[in-house]
Amino acid sequence: MSAIHCHQLCKTFHQGDEIITGLDHVDITIETGEFVCLSGPSGSGKTTLLNAIGGLDTPDSGEIRMGDLRIDQLKRGALADMRLHHIGFVFQAYNLIPVLSARENVEFVMQVQGVATAERARKANAILAEVGLQGLEDRRPAQLSGGQQQRVAVARAIVSQPDLVLADEPTANLDSVAAAHLMGLFASLNENHGATFVIATHDKRVMAYARRLVKMQDGKIISDEAQ
Amino acid sequence: MAAHRLHFSVLLTLSWRNLWRNHRRTGIMLGAIAVGVWAMIFMTALMRGMVDDMLNEGIHNLPGHIQIQHPDFLDDPSVANSIAEPAGEFEALLQRIESKRWATRIRVPAVIASERETRGINLVGIEPAAEADVSGLPELLSAGRFLESRKDSGIIIGAKLAERLETRLGKRVVVMSQDPDNNIRERGFRIVGIYRAKLPGLEEFNVYAARDTLQQLLRIEGRVSQIIVVGEDYRDIEPLYRQVRQQAPADLQVRAWYEIDTYLATMFNMMDGFVLVWVIIIFLALSFGLVNTLVMAIFERVREIGLIQALGMRPALILYQILMESTLLLLIGLGLGNGLALATIKPLESGLDISVVAEGMAMMGASSMLYPKLTSSDLLLANSVVILLGVLTSILPAWRAAKLDPVRALNST
């Protein structure tokens, strides 16, 4: 799996009698190893595009390809498998499963993937140490700060080395120190692990880390520039 | 295979921990399941005990498990419809019956008269030694002695009949009946024993005398009314029934207890259906609570379900996880309910005195002591119904959780 190709993606939502345009004939290609920020005001279509690429939402029309795979044509089970094996997600909030410890949250995806217990534990401990959470492995999410929770979510998103990490407003609930730490982590993981990052944000501090900035408005891409 | 084990492990972890997220709700639901299961098992054991008692009493007191008799005896139980005492090859065949518990009886309608009263009775001529094997008559004696031989000249009557006749042990009574030529035959007997039956009605009606003595009185030497064969358990007499039918002479009729006493047979057949209906009714009451618990549990973690979908958990695994949660809840509830039922049934094994409603019980043919009877099949039925229907009931909420749209689920408040 490598590059993402979106061609003429359209998506509308119904809110009462009103029809809202989420994506309006969006064309975008994201190459392997890129660090892309999708920016724009609320309702510009960043999250909708992210959800479509991640197979969480289905476009009304258009194509999404990940390598040779037509994501928009996959059924629910196959989409789940694709997310499990190729995509890591980091959401704005409520990122962790509350009944599992930090380590178990990190191990969760690997466990569903069928990774053996010893290997899971080794990888989870290593990645938690890498994101600076050594010693907090057995804490439940409620016992961690917002920044620590986000770092656990990041660790979970990248522990099985997915081709693509999708992050939706990952710093929205973090203070500036925690946000800077998280973005530094993203950048380092992008460089060291070669993972492709697509981050939806309207936080300028996050955009500063991007090597490619895609601006959206009213469901359309209005600019796409390398930084 | 290894992946399936890992899936099972992660599903089990999630299910178990989710179950205890809301201790109070889970505790209340467990309490409801435990009480429901206890009610299923305990009440079934009481009903089964009552019906079993009625059947055992009813079958034991006269019909036996299998009867061999004249084809017309059931329609006209007169002395004219008697059969020859088993002898020769037929007797040898009866001796080869596995249970070896058989006896001949004479049964005729008769009249008994004391110094003060006269009553209609069922006069039963028995072989004392064999009778002890086929019925519990000797154990029912409350006063006096049992008949000592086939030629004993004594008579045994019920306590209730003695009361009605205003007579007692050691007094003489006169018994009258008809011989095969319809001549009235009568004879005086001394009361040598008084018995007390669990069913007071029987005490008034059945009077026992020695078989050969009655043969002589009724002029039917060498003849009896019926041959009684008894197996180990009235529920499992088919092999014995087949064996006796094969070996009995063709001119005799062989009948099982359920063909002779259709009331008891109906009770027996109805009981299984009644237990099933009872178990299902209790389960239906439980199922509302179960579904409500699951729906609430799912409603509270819609976002979490969206999250695990986003992380790549297949809808089928989400369905299994919810079902596993429900199964764990049911299994714990079943464990508690079974334990509670066993703990309450065990102390009542020696019998529950319900003599305050003895007359009503007697009308139904049951005694005033209730012995709860817990059978493995009833236990299996209650547990199977709860677990199978419980899981089935959980499928709809689990399926709805699995079908949640991940984006909507993640955005839900």
List keywords for this structure.
heterodimer, A: 227 residues, alpha/beta, Rossmann fold, six-stranded mixed sheet, four-stranded antiparallel sheet, 7 helices, 29% strand, B: 413 residues, alpha+beta, 2 domains, six-stranded mixed β-barrel, two-stranded antiparallel sheet, 16 helices, 14 strands, 55% helix, elongated
Describe the overall structure.
The complex is a heterodimer of chains A (227) and B (413). Chain A is α/β, with parallel strands linked by helices and 227 residues long. Chain A is built from 7 helices and 10 strands. In chain A, strand 4 (61-66) and strand 5 (69-70) form a beta hairpin. In chain A, helix 3 (102-113) runs parallel beside helix 5, helix 4 packs across helix 5 and helix 5 (146-159) runs parallel beside helix 6. The model of chain A has no long low-confidence stretch (mean pLDDT 90). In chain B, 44% of the residues are buried. Chain B has helices at residues 2-19, 23-61, 88-95, 128-134, 137-140, 159-165, 200-205, 211-218, 238-247, 257-260, 262-300, 302-310, 315-345, 358-363, 376-402, 406-411, and strands at 66-69, 83-84, 102-113, 118-126, 141-144, 154-158, 172-178, 184-195, 206-210, 223-224, 226-229, 253-256, 352-353, 369-370. Chain B has 2 domains: 10-58 and 265-411, no CATH class; 64-260, no CATH class. In chain B, 55% of the residues lie in helices and 18% in strands. The mean pLDDT of chain B is 87. The longest helix of chain B has 39 residues, at 23-61. Chain B has 413 residues and is α+β, with helices and mostly antiparallel strands. In chain B, the strands form 3 sheets. A 6-stranded mixed β-barrel of chain B has the order 3-4-9-6-8-7. The radius of gyration of chain B is 31 Å and the shape is elongated. The two termini of chain B are 38 Å apart. In chain B, helix 1 (2-19) packs across helix 13. Chain B has 16 helices and 14 strands. Classes of the chains: A alpha/beta (227), B alpha+beta (413). Chains A and B meet through helix 2 and helix 3 of A and helix 1, helix 12, helix 13 and helix 16 of B.
